[in-house]
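User: Predict the structure for this protein chain, please.
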Amino acid sequence: MIFGTEILKYREAILKDLADLVAVPSVRGAAREGMPFGPEPARALCLILDKAEKMGFAVRNVENYAGHAEFGSGDDLAAVAAHVDVVPAGEGWDTDPFTLTRKGNLYFGRGAADDKGAAVVALYCLKAIKDAGIRGNRRLRVIFGAGEETGMEDLDYYFRKEEMPSMGFTPDSDYGICNREKGILRLDLLSGEKNESVVKEFQAGAVYNAVPDHAEAVLSCSAKTADALRKAARTAEGGFAFEPVPEGIRVTSKGKASHAMQPQEGFNAAAALIRLLSAVFSREELGGFFSFLDQSVGFRYDGSGIGVRQSDEESGPLTLNLGILRVKDGSVRAGIDIRYPVTSDGDKIFGEIRRRAEEAGFSAELLEDSKPLYLPGDSCLISILRDSYSEIMGKPAELYATGGGTYARAMKGNAVAFGPFFPDEPDRRLHNTNESIDIERFMVHAQICLEAMYRIFTA
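Assistant: Here is the predicted structure, written as structure tokens:
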């Protein structure tokens, strides 16, 4: 029996609830009492848990870090994990990013693809199982996180309070089955000295895991130097705008956003602006830190500039992204995101970066080293997911590796990423402007998701 098709009857309800959820601009903000990621992620979490409770599920909110809806009984637990927080909208949308907007089969909105659409579908899959009166062999949860995009400490905290599932998946990647996730390093490079550069202000990026599409700097310089910058910009890679200010000039750089796991798909506005400044100012004028960034980081997405280029057969090459750059109150900080191969060692990678930074007179601070995930292809979970995919698609799901970091690694080797997007789909512009889902393809995902949840529940 194919149970996955049961989800099709909930299509309009899914879209309605997705519109409600997209309307919440659940970007991480300053922490408040009882709201570790700020008020908007907490509001989104409460919204979806309220919908789950009205469906008749047992729900729990774990201090606005994460929460769950649960169905069934038994000592064992399986889970599907999705998140309701989003990255900032960025500039250049054709529609309001926080209004779910239909154009043909496409529905646009921040979070529609990553990951609110999958969160709502998973909840309705749980409802479909409940409505059909299915009796399982374990409890089944849908877990909703509120801080996935900024470090995944949401599920780390959640699992300190709640039991670990024996099996599960997260619909926050692509089909087939992602049983290999690269390690993730996040670190800051720090100037370690008062900024004496002509760069008095610099601002780019909001999160480590996205290529910044906008950067701007305020420079202390003469009118003659400002003219030289304008001239250099005509032939430089990127788009630039100039505005006179009392100190000298403000330069704005326009780039293209992309996820940090594939920085080569974007265009780094911060790196482009540093490159422009390096073409006009001497190292002494620009300061050693900006010169170091230009030479060692910049557009060298493979890490070769800072001595960490590497690759393996299982998961492919290391990638490096300059996600954040700030000059404030005389200090300079650059935030770096690195995705490293599953057979590599994050400690050694950070050690080499720290050594090179210190040799140049700067410092490196490790913020996170999320170790790689590698689940064997002959596991029971992967067999269930392969069969579920085959039931709907008529062919087995392939195994693959990703540079993305998903909730699967938070479940300590008991889960993998599975869906929601198909390899032949066009770019859904996750972490970019005009993020969207194709509702026809997404409802195919919904059938696979339900089939998998049904099989995990009853296995």
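The longest helix spans residues 439-458.
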